Amino acid sequence: MTAVTYELIKTDKKSKARRGRVHTPHGTIETPVFMPVGTAATVKAMRPDEIKEMGAEIILSNTYHLYLRPGHQIVKAAGGLHKFMNWDRAILTDSGGFQVFSLGDLRKITEEGVEFRSHIDGSKHMLSPEKSMEVQNALGSDIMMAFDECAPYPADRSYVKKSLERTTRWLARCKEAHKNTEQQSLFGIMQGGMYQDLRYQSAMEIVEMDLPGYAIGGLSVGEPKELMYEVLDYCVEYLPGNKPRYLMGVGSPDYLFEGVERGVDMFDCVLPTRIARNGTAMTSMGKVVIKNAAYEKDFTALDPECDCYTCRNYSKAYLRHLFKANEILSSMLLTNHNLHFLVNLMKGIRKAIEEDRFAEYKRDFYNKYGI
Amino acid sequence: MTAVTYELIKTDKKSKARRGRVHTPHGTIETPVFMPVGTAATVKAMRPDEIKEMGAEIILSNTYHLYLRPGHQIVKAAGGLHKFMNWDRAILTDSGGFQVFSLGDLRKITEEGVEFRSHIDGSKHMLSPEKSMEVQNALGSDIMMAFDECAPYPADRSYVKKSLERTTRWLARCKEAHKNTEQQSLFGIMQGGMYQDLRYQSAMEIVEMDLPGYAIGGLSVGEPKELMYEVLDYCVEYLPGNKPRYLMGVGSPDYLFEGVERGVDMFDCVLPTRIARNGTAMTSMGKVVIKNAAYEKDFTALDPECDCYTCRNYSKAYLRHLFKANEILSSMLLTNHNLHFLVNLMKGIRKAIEEDRFAEYKRDFYNKYGI
Lengths: 371, 371
Hints:
The structure is a homodimer.
Chain A lengths: L4 E7 L6 E7 L2 E5 L1 E3 L12 H6 L4 E4 L1 H6 L3 H6 L3 H5 L4 E4 L3 H5 L5 E3 L4 E4 L6 E4 L1 H11 L3 E3 L11 H21 L7 E6 L5 H12 L5 E4 L8 H14 L6 E3 L5 H9 L4 E3 L2 H7 L2 E4 L2 E4 L19 H5 L2 H9 L3 H27 L3 H12 L2
Parallel strand pairs in A: 4-14, 5-6, 6-10, 10-11, 11-12, 12-13, 13-14
Antiparallel strand pairs in A: 1-2, 2-3, 7-8, 8-9, 15-16
Helix pairs in contact in A: 6-7, 7-8, 8-9, 10-14, 11-14, 13-14, 14-15
């Protein structure tokens, strides 16, 4: 029995959308799910009790950031990441791979792993499959992600092939290095860029390792939306139906709907929290850029259909004032709203799948949101 | 009957410390009280429900800031400051005087009032007793402060005398201009610098106007601590015992104790919220500078005697990590703690006065805090 298991409840009659549950040592996650991102052991501008209150059952945290600061040994000494950050529900940690690959000139890739310099102080480090597992084991996340390379877009076929094959070899090393299988589960990551045969090759190689879950990496990296949907279509087909499927780095409402429709169970993205700090809210009627002069005397709620703390208690005029005055409460209230919006959207999607009206739910949402 | 009234419950046997209540249209305030500052219609990094939860019964907000942004007419159109910022307990607003006088080269004082340029966009404005009342009436605060001049320290006698006499004339104009006496009460402000006879003169002039409360202004402006205590001693004597006494701009624990001992009922200061954002906590064992390396692996609470949200849920190691990573949650958690600390300190002081052990309570606190 693995630490994390998947339970399929129901599949939509007209699409690949599915309703399920991911069971973890820190509770059950109803899927499809959106996971708020808490990069540095905090979902920016949020108290954990607020995140719980809105119904989030899992958050994501970043191995690269925590390895550098405060250091995984400190988190371990604190009793693990859950205790350190006061979050007793499930946590998924990424592998650090995406971050170190993004460092550009500051990193060097070898078969062993990636040598890089810290973005904080320039100090030299090495992240490898073994090191990533060591760090994630120390953090104690429920779901650990494999150390992979997310190939850029565009990238030529030979590079993508070499890269995905190395990612497979790294996955085998991750599986070997993972030391706490009873409390933590390792998910594999499919790569292969925008090449169907390479996606197939990657899927076959990683599914062979029989892991408790699989992610689709290397999408939403700058490719056209239509291409992403096309690739996603066949990616999902190559993954086993009895394991959760996680589409990495995706969080706009349309991507969530399109992902769910194609059979994805898990999503994460910094989008809702980042745009909140920049003064943008997602609402049932589309995006609201709160600094706009139109809201100066608008004493209505951000979203009349929302029952989050922000919408229950504040007007757009007040939120605009806070944003313009550069007040921390602006980030707090808009982040609360945006996360609540996505958590609630997923709740609506789950209910729609249960009641066989996912297509209608999607159509109605798109119409109102303006997609 | 004025909007705000004072009820004296008990006076300490060995000092001038007194236990009372200030009744306002938005609830009763147990005194002595510390008032958290919410400059721009928000106590920085705090949700109002957090401030309520810690037991604060009144907050302060700044007329100068709200006049410039978002503008008092917008706050009025929102239904007043309480509704605008979602705070249904009492609010005290200052007059804007202190802020415009602090603008230095950007302001010009005349008998009419103060002409100044906005620190935000350089636009030209005039604040006068009438304008300050108009703005504070629009905001709808429970307690409005008179438009006064807080003389600098040091200042020569003739300047201070002229300034306090103008402040008296301005107070008469404030009283005349105040348009909402049933819902809002105007407090006068005593000036007079460090000159005993001028303090006496100021007191006699303003007490004559029979206002619902009086503040002591012009202290904690750079003078030595001992001088402040000496001046405070006689200032309190000159004010009537049946009205609340408010010492403006004071919030360090020793100032609070010394003020209470001399008969002050109300205090405000940005200190606890400002130092929180800079990473400093007030605790029962003195100040904690959270970035210190000593706390890197300190998994104990900030203050073992504190039961605030922060101390119940987080370690110094986590708080240090948040501060070093420049996370908003650092400001949120430290502000919560510091305000809880002062609100709780005042609760302890009130109980000590009730139980005739104020001197012992003060001595024990000073010993532990290191004063």
